[in-house]
Write a structure and sequence with these properties.
about 130 residues; mainly beta; Rieske Iron-sulfur Protein; four-stranded antiparallel β-sheet; 1 helix; binds FE2/S2 (inorganic) cluster
Length: about 130
């Protein structure tokens, strides 16, 4: 079956280093474009403790403060995410769960593509067993 793509937003609304909160089909997402221009969409609730990630942003900082190059950092405990469902880093001194140590996906992500000036979204990629 061919993947179904749906229009999400104009590509000009998401520049490198930008992060947007978007509700898509009843799910709260963080949609971002990394510094190198890669598009990513992940669940806005952190896979660690299910905190709503933007709620951890310090006063006066914007959503873009969540990005560090190619990774999104949850401000609650500073876990890093690749936007493809994987945690890419946990600060030293915090316990690293075995699923993360094994490189398994711990979060849901959505594929994005840009075509004719529009960012489209596909079906979510669920957490593997
Ligand atoms: S709740 Fe996100 S890193 Fe802990």
């Amino acid at each position: 079956m061919a993947a179904e793509w749906k229009e999400l937003l104009p590509a000009s609304d998401l520049r490198p280093g930008n992060v947007l909160e978007i509700s898509h089909e009843g799910v709260d997402l963080l949609v971002f474009r990394t510094q190198s221009g890669t598009l990513r969409a992940m669940d806005a609730y952190c896979p660690h403790m299910r905190n709503y990630i933007p709620n951890g942003i310090r006063e006066g900082q914007g959503l873009g403060s969540l990005l560090d190059g190619e990774e999104l950092i949850c401000p609650f405990h500073n876990w890093r995410f690749d936007g493809l469902g994987r945690c890419t880093g946990i600060p030293s001194g915090q316990r690293v769960p075995s699923r993360i140590a094994a490189g398994k996906r711990i979060g849901t992500s959505w594929p994005l593509r840009e075509t004719l000036g529009v960012i489209q979204i596909g079906a979510p990629t669920k957490i593997s067993a």
